[in-house]
Design a protein that fits this description.
The complex is a heterodimer of chains A (280) and B (151). Chain A contains 9 helices and 4 strands, in the order αααββββαααααα. By secondary structure, chain A is mostly helical. Chain A has one domain. Chain A is elongated. Chain A starts with a helix and ends with a helix. Chain B has a two-stranded antiparallel ribbon with strand order 1-2. In chain B, strand 1 and strand 2 form a beta hairpin. Chain B folds into 2 domains: 80 residues, Arc Repressor Mutant, subunit A (Orthogonal Bundle); 36 residues. The chains are: A mainly alpha (280), B mainly alpha (151). Strand 3 of chain A pairs antiparallel with strand 3 of chain B, so a sheet runs across the interface.
């Protein structure tokens, strides 16, 4: 019985939960807790899928018809092996690709950009600001953004990028990229990666607000949003309106974080509890 | 890993050598005829302790990255910057914006913001107006508190 419950739980956490969670937009006001919840659901889904196989073993040990039970045990083992294999493969694939892109870009930036104490400056009129994560991380600004933003807003932008680097938001994005890529196309739920992308921006915005205040952060967002062509052709909306709305709405009710953390704890531990029950 | 100690130094030298080549190519009206390893090495003599072979390695790495081109000149190579610094900067910017597949790029480099549509700009401005109004409100309150205290 329990192996089926675990398989059902895996389906629930991997395909049903992301869609439902992406619709509860209120949790964006508690970005840190929401990120923990998203991670817990992903990890929980993987654990449930993997635990289904070991949960069948007790059936084999005390079953009256061991050969008949094999029909259950073998498919479960195969499924778990395939999942582990796909995750490892995707992890390797995504990891190498990201590292190569970042390394190439960092080397190029180091050569063409002006070196300053905390940042690299690209001599270019288009306003832009970004960071290159990794062991040798960089914050990169263009001359255009230096010209467009007063100091307080510039500090907000740098604090935002520093928050990405210090918080290792790249690892979060990498994890969700791996999970997304490991799931076969038709079963994929793209909501997770999209929402996590937004949440790390909201979290970094909080750091910018702590440094320069809401007003400077909001103004910097507006200036930069207005200075670039949208990527409409690629079908990706920008995060700017949502982020500004969240800045305008202010901090959340503390109960919201508590709710998200409890949900996270449940999603991550339930598969293990079920596995323990199977063996008990 | 041995390269983790030497790579930053080589990276630094790559920049210095590129800067030298850009400078040399930009001086005077005559066509830049390239620089040999020996010439680059001479340029840094007394300024930096760089071995001749290191200059060779650095130029070789730059050639592999397509940042310099080279032409045979007898038994030596003459090195040229593949692009002006401005062109390479523009290329770097473009690469952050367009070149990579979009999902990859958005995971590889974290941008402060992507461009917004006109509709989105309207939403942004509305939210900003709210924040501004609240900031003004807070300022007014604190000013009032101050004036009360003064009395």
């Amino acid at each position: 019985m329990i192996p089926f419950v675990l398989a059902g739980l895996a389906v629930l956490l991997a395909w049903v939960a992301p869609g439902l969670m992406a619709r509860r937009k209120g949790f964006r006001r508690a970005p840190r807790a929401a990120l923990v919840a998203w991670q817990a659901v992903s990890v929980g889904g993987i654990l449930a899928a993997l635990a289904a196989a070991p949960a069948t073993i007790p059936l084999l040990l005390d079953g009256e018809d061991p050969m008949g039970r094999l029909q259950l045990v073998v498919p479960a083992l195969v499924a778990s092996t395939v999942i582990v294999g796909r995750l490892l493969y995707a992890g390797h694939h995504v990891g190498t690709r990201l590292r190569r892109v970042r390394d190439d870009h960092r080397q190029l930036v180091d050569i063409v950009a002006r070196h300053e104490e905390r940042v690299r400056i690209l001599q270019h009129p288009t306003p832009t600001a970004y960071c290159i994560p990794g062991r040798q991380s960089r914050v990169v600004l263009s001359q255009g953004v230096l010209d467009a933003l007063p100091e307080e807003q510039l500090e907000a932008v740098i604090a935002h990028e520093d928050a990405h680097l210090r918080g290792r938001h790249d690892l979060l994005l990498e994890f969700f990229s791996v999970v997304t890529e490991a799931v076969p196309g038709p079963l994929r739920s793209p909501e997770a990666l999209g929402e996590v992308r937004l949440l790390v921006e909201v979290l970094a915005d909080r750091a910018a607000v702590r440094r320069s205040g809401e007003l400077a952060t909001a103004r910097a967002l507006l200036t930069l949003a207005g200075s670039r062509e949208p990527e409409a052709a690629l079908g990706v909306g920008t995060t700017a309106p949502v982020r500004l709305r969240l800045l305008a709405d202010g901090p959340p009710h503390p109960a919201l974080s508590l709710l998200a953390y409890s949900y996270a704890a449940l999603a991550a531990t339930l598969p293990l509890v079920l596995l323990a029950m199977a063996w008990a | 890993m041995p390269h983790s100690t030497s790579a930053p130094r080589l990276g630094d030298l790559e920049r210095v050598v590129m800067e030298h080549l850009w400078e040399a190519a930009g001086v005077g009206d005559t066509l830049f005829e390239g620089a040999t390893v020996r010439e680059v090495h001479l340029r840094f003599e007394g300024e930096r302790e760089i071995a001749y072979t290191t200059v060779m390695t650095v130029l070789d790495r730059l050639a592999k990255k397509d940042l310099v081109t080279r032409e045979r000149d007898g038994r030596a190579w003459r090195y040229f910057p593949a692009d002006t610094r401005e062109a390479l900067t523009a290329q770097t910017m473009l690469r952050t914006l367009d070149d990579m597949e979009v999902t990859d790029r958005r995971t590889a480099l974290l941008h402060f913001l992507d461009g917004a549509t006109t509709d989105e700009l309207a939403d942004i401005k509305a939210a900003l107006a709210e924040i501004e109004a609240r900031a003004e409100g807070e300022q007014a309150t604190s000013a009032r508190r101050k004036s009360i205290r003064r009395r």
